[in-house]
């Protein structure tokens, strides 16, 4: 009816007003939202498993949480920013000349900020649960340890080099899968289903490479929430496994560069113009 | 052969006769069926897990039951009514001027009635199981509590504000995912697979936000079965967690409106004409 | 190279020779293979869970076994026979004038024979396991009962009418989903993925309606293996739950007819010509 | 901006330089990578379940690991080599005149080498975990047996003929599914999703036929890692179940040939030219 069409027109005008002019800002917002969704679902699933003491999900549901988190974390920003979701990816694209160095810092900050805020959201949503489970003692280790909700910690048996090797293999595996899915000269994923298959890649990595150090194959995913847990009261113990992290970040970025060249990394990561 | 073609023609005439003339009635019937399927599978999976005492499925199978329930609950009515399945969605669309206020009450009643009748169906289907499991004592809490089959109850540790925050975050997450999947300016889901991906969004929300208060992110899904369990003999205890519900319903509708404007909610929810 | 092309030509001629002329026979063969695959995977998963005493899969993996069994059981014959896989479906299509009465008996026999032979195959494949698990005592009930591998048995608490209601609801749910997926006037499943979504429907029914009497929503699936287990040495106890089965078969066929008319059953079940 | 375009051009020239001229070498590299991915994820999931003593995944996650491993193991080489991933497949295609005998040895060696190196990678990645779990005693049987990470061992109850039958049925099931998915005269899988559905076939076989002897339906998948575990210190006990393996390899190749002819094996396995 007319009244309805009239309201719709008004709405359209409003929407046009709301539209953000700056393309860079829209891209940063997209990256922010993408990483935010990824961490919200991923860390949320860890929080649910931890605080419910495995009664409302076990380890596999964490794998699935991060997998589907990735899927929707790619769906949300893909059309706007190309869904890097990962500082190492953005940096690699710069090195490969597929992404401008000037936009790099904005992307990285958006990603880190998204991860940080998502961790805060999970902490807010599970505040009562965490308090009830820990009795208010926020610890990194022990029977009621909850720091693992936010960032990853290597298994006790893991040596430094073991952690480095684990991260290199995990990242290489993710990369080979993602690049194969996006390579038009190969068998690309069907249009519109790439995010689902990238999620599947994250799922299988969690199933086959998760037990050593929690497959933290994304610096933003790991550092943002870790920083939050440090500030929020888990203390500086959260930064003990620092060395490993730094090492694999370097290794990873180097790796991205090499593999990127080998596999024509440029196919699937060019942000779609709009 | 001719005989077969003849029968087919007769059938076609019969079908034409059966065809419902009123479009509004067809839409209401569609919404009714959609919510009915959603609750039939969703609450059914809870009933199976509860009455089989985790031997024929555990918490994750409930997440999957609601996820696939949503998938088929969207497939069934989508072509006719646009598959709102949710009073808050219908209301939001009215506010956004995408849906006529005159049809709103019919939609909402169909949704509530579908949820109510589905709960009754589950109770009928699991009557023997519930009687065997509870010994005839229909309780809301305790070792043999069965009210949870029909509607959601917050965890003991959950504070009022904790529940409100939980619901706001859960609804916002669902919305962002659903809107991204339907946004043609972004990376939309492949045609014909939207229902599957909406189901995946419900799945990941159940995996990452299910333990606080059971992610009842749909007023019809929660109120219809709750009313049934009240009438069917679980007593007025089922309405104890009322306050939370009212609060998040308000919050949610407000939220839908805001986000709807932000994300051009109109893309994926216009009922397809037929 | 030439030698290779030459071999290929020879092969093509061989294939042409092998090609079965009679279309009816090809269709029956297709139905046979479809049901065979469905039961091979479905009952196989039950055998694995039973004989491994839940160490190599639990109840959900049985749901998944029948779901994926259905998926591939539809992929294999769909192009040839339309993948009825179910006597009730074939009969309904006859009643609806979409399938010739003359072909009905051939289809039903192929389906039953496929189910029977698949049960025999599972028994052959798991012979050592069953012998090791049961110590050679093939029983229908008790701690080492193995008759459940082949056909479904109602839970102890289930009353006759409870079983009937359970079967009617289960079959109706399956039908509504399958018909919605195939209805071009609605939101049909993407071409080539119908079998996957039909499998998903079977999965959610197993998750939400499996605990009462094992969702035996297909007479061929239930009767063929039951007959085998009777012959193979489980004794006539396997036919005790007969009454229920007969009742729901009648109810189901009646139901198919009604719903078929209501939902234009003809859309998705016409065998594709070839 | 120009600077960026300039860098991109340089990169393209670099890529052209990197491009491998020999088509055969590219195909072998593709087969190598495909099997490598398959085993990396498959055996990795076994390693995670074994060394974490079922706390970070149980038997089903192994099924999923091999299923998704197959999916990505097909995505990676499909466009280049047709993704045989299996000596028996390559051999069958030769027999069917669809693949040149001259390329056969290169393919088989690439597949075996990929499987061997992937097993080594898994051992490297899980070195600390295996040492911590076994205390340094690498055994084939016993409470802390770890040889099962690399290759499959029949259950204790399994007789020789039982193993042979198990393997024949498993291979036949896989074949029928894969051939149906690729048969254009039937209902083929949607373009770009074949790898996912082949993975689903592997999943359902693992769910329904995994408990007898671990569904080692691929000689390369089994022999490569077995050889590695022999060399790496698990001793010659890893070759005890030899007889079975040889038998089913012969049976399988024979089977492939027969079924291949019956089902027009040629449809889905011709390597796509590029």
Automatic annotation (TrEMBL), chains A, B, C, D:
Q: Which GO terms describe its cellular component?
A: basolateral plasma membrane
Q: Which PROSITE patterns match?
A: MIP
* Keywords (A to Z) from UniProt: Membrane, Transmembrane, Transmembrane helix, Transport
Q: What reactions does this protein catalyze?
A: H2O(in) = H2O(out); glycerol(in) = glycerol(out); urea(in) = urea(out)
Identify the main location: membrane
Q: Which residue windows are transmembrane per the record?
A: 24-47, 59-76, 106-127, 133-153, 160-181, 196-217
Q: Which InterPro entries match?
A: Aquaporin-like (IPR023271), MIP (IPR000425), MIP/Aquaporin (IPR050363), MIP_CS (IPR022357)
Topology of this chain in the membrane: Multi-pass membrane protein
Cellular localization per UniProt: Membrane
Q: Which family does it belong to?
A: Belongs to the MIP/aquaporin (TC 1.A.8) family.
Molecular function GO labels: glycerol channel activity; urea transmembrane transporter activity; water channel activity
Q: What is this protein called?
A: Aquaporin-3-like
């Amino acid at each position: 009816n007319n009244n309805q069409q009239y309201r719709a027109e008004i709405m359209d005008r409003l929407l046009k007003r709301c539209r953000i002019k700056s393309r860079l800002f829209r891209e940063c917002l997209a990256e922010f939202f993408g990483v935010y969704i990824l961490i919200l679902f991923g860390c949320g699933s860890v929080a649910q498993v931890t605080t419910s003491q495995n009664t409302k999900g076990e380890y596999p549901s964490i794998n699935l949480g991060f997998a589907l988190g990735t899927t929707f974390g790619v769906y949300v920003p893909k059309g706007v920013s190309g869904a890097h979701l990962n500082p190492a990816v953005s940096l690699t694209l710069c090195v490969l000349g597929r992404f401008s160095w000037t936009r790099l810092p904005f992307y990285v900050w958006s990603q880190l900020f998204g991860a940080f805020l998502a961790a805060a959201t999970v902490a807010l949503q599970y505040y009562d649960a965490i308090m009830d489970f820990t009795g208010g003692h926020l610890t990194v280790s022990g029977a009621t340890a909850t720091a693992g909700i936010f960032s990853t910690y290597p298994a006790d048996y893991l040596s430094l080099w073991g952690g480095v090797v684990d991260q290199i293999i995990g990242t290489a595996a993710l990369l080979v899968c993602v690049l194969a899915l996006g390579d038009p000269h190969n068998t690309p994923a069907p249009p519109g289903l790439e995010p689902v298959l990238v999620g599947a890649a994250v799922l299988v990595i969690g199933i086959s490479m998760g037990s050593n150090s929690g497959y933290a194959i994304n610096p933003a995913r790991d550092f943002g929430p870790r920083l939050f847990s440090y500030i929020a009261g888990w203390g500086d113990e959260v930064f003990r496994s620092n060395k490993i992290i730094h090492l694999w970040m370097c290794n990873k970025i180097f790796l991205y560069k090499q593999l990127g060249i080998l596999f024509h990394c440029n196919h699937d990561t060019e942000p779609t113009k709009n």
